[in-house]
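Hi everyone,

Forwarding the result from last night's run.
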Amino acid sequence: MRILIAGCNGLLGQNLLRTAPSGHALIGLARHSEAALPERLGAYHARDIADPATWDFVREMLKPDFIFNAAAYTDVDGCERDPAQCERINRDAVRAMAATGIPLVQVSTDYVFDGTAGPYTEEDTVNPLSVYGRVKLESEVAALAGSASNLVVRTMWVWGKGKGAKKSFTDFVRESLQAEKPARIVSDQIGNPTLAEDLALAIWVLVGSKCSGVYHVTGSERVSRLDWARSVAKFYGLDSAAHAALITPVTTAELKLPAARPLLSGLRCEKLERDTGLVLGGLDAQLLDHRAAG
């Protein structure tokens, strides 16, 4: 198949390229002048996903068999400050993708829930608290309205390695402790850390299994961010009393962030396991894979 990966230079986009099964012709699309992983691509196009002309070009000239949308404006507080920009990238672009009639994979988030009663199944009631969550929910509706074959993958706390990608939570904790610098870590946000490589592999499996509709795809372990930080410290041998004292718990309210966060969150992935047999690794397995990746 010819697969167009929008946002191919981002963390998830790069991992989709790295984990792609053989036999697919991969086309990259992103706003940068050059591809991050040109060796993985048959072709690359520097385009704005929020420009409707981009999707006319894709439909008429590139003619992919599938679009994977790994592009998003993920600065949750930035979305709160600039809803128009959030809507342009996270919703309007998805509407344009869906309107091509080409089968679509749209990546969404646990922020469509309010975080009062997690972990959530695909059937649980959505109730976003922030602009980001509202707009991502609207993008789900747009994707699913485009075709019965379209797929929405909800995930959360995605981390890992990518060329030019921002520093992951794991690396922030490890590097802070190695440098003997304090790390303020939120104690009241609970969810599922998800290694980007695992998420990418699961997306390929879902598409290969001809799955459609909404699926939750996360790591199998549900922890607080504080527990995540302590697991990182232990994994890297940075769990002495002196290191432990550097990890300072704070509440979300203390941070006075512009956008509300779902606190008691997490996603249940029984549907993924039932339909594909996949169970993503827990935090220790993710840390091992992350270290092995170098």
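The chain has a mean pLDDT of 96.

Cheers,
N.
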